[in-house]
Predict the structure.
Amino acid sequence: MRISIRDRSALRAVTPGALSAYARSSGWNQEEPYRKHSDVYIGEGLPDIIVPRTERLGDYASVVADLIDTFADVTEQDQLTVYRSLVTADRDVILIRAGESRDGSIALDDGVSLIGGTRDLLLAAACSLDKPKAVYRPGENQKAADLVKSIQLGQTAHGSFVVTLLTPVVPPRMPALFREQGDPGAPDQRRFTPRLMQALSSMSQAAERAVVGDVEAFVGALESGVSANLCEALVRIIKPFPTLDIRVMWARTRPENHRSSTVRFRPSEVPLFKEAARLLRAQAPRPDETLVGFVRLLPRDQNVGEGTIRLSTSIGNKQRSVQAELEREDYERAVQAHKDGAAVEMSGDLERIGQRWRLLRPELVKVILNADPDVDDLAFQPSAS
C-alpha cells in the first residue's frame, strides 16, 4: 500500500537544510538558482528537482510533499521512511540499544534507569567539551545543562528496546572553514556528539587496559571526556541488560564518516567502571586545603600582573610539586619568600590530574621565616629554582 504524507504541520517540520542535505547525499548537486528562494539540483540519471532555501514560501508544505514523493521513487523506499530520514537529516541521532528483547519491551524500572542514566551520560559528555575534569559537581556548568535540555527524544525503533535521541539542528560547514583539517570551528551541537562517542570509545579501551592491570587507564582518558560522572552513568544504564550498544547516525548536513559510530558495553565491565568512578572522584579538587612549602619560580610574562609558581610541599606524606597561578600581590610576596629561603602557607582547592597537582583559587596566607618553629615540621628543604 502506497502511503502519501499530506499533513501540512508534519511536512513543515522538514527544514530546507534537511532537504538540501538529503538531496546532496543521494546524488544530486546544486546547479543554479530558481526564482528568488530556491535552487535547481541535478544528478546523473536523476530527475531535476527544485529545493527551497527558506520555509517562508506559501506552498512550502506542497513542495516538501513533492520532494518526498520524488525521493521515495528514486531510492525505492516508502514515503514514511523518507520522511523519517528527512526530519533527522540535519540532526545527529543517538541510538541506545538495550540488549535483546523479543517484543521490544523492558521492565519499567529498567526503562526509568535507562532514561535517567542516559541524561546523566549526555550531561557528563557536554560538561567535558570545554574543560575536561575528573568530576563535575551538579549545576556547575549551565551551558552544558542547556545543551542537554535541547536534546529531544525521538521515535522508538522496532525490535530491541532503543532510546532515540535527537540533537539540536547541526548547521552545515561554511565554505571558508574547508581550508582547515577537521572541523575546528564547529558549533557545540556538532562538537557534542563526536565528544560523546570519543569518551565512550575511550571508556571501552580503558576497560580493556584495566583488565590487564593498567591502573592509570581511566585517568589517562580524562582529556577524551571520561569522568567519574560518565562512569557512574554507564554503570546505571549497562547493569540491567546483556549488552548495551550506543550508536550515532551523523547529520547529513555535517557528515562525520571518519569517526567511530558504535560502541558496545557489557555488564562484566560494570565493576571496572565503578572502581574508575571511585578513583576519579578521589582525584577531584579538595576544597579549602592548606599547604605549607617552599616556592619554586617559573618563567613569567612581564606584561601581565599574575605569575605561576610551583610549591614544594607534602601531600599524603609524600613530597609533591603543586602549581599555582597567583595574582600580582601574592606573586610578589612569593618571589620575595623564594629569595629569602622562607616557606609559605597557601590555601585553595587542591586538584590532581594524572600525576600533576594544581592549586585552584590560590591564596598566599602568610610567609613563614626560617626562625619560625613551624618550619621544623616540613619534611624537606627548599629546591633551587
In short: The two ends are 81 Å apart (CA to CA). The chain is about 35% helix and 25% strand. The chain has three domains: 8-87, 93-171+184-282, 286-377. The longest helix spans residues 188-211.
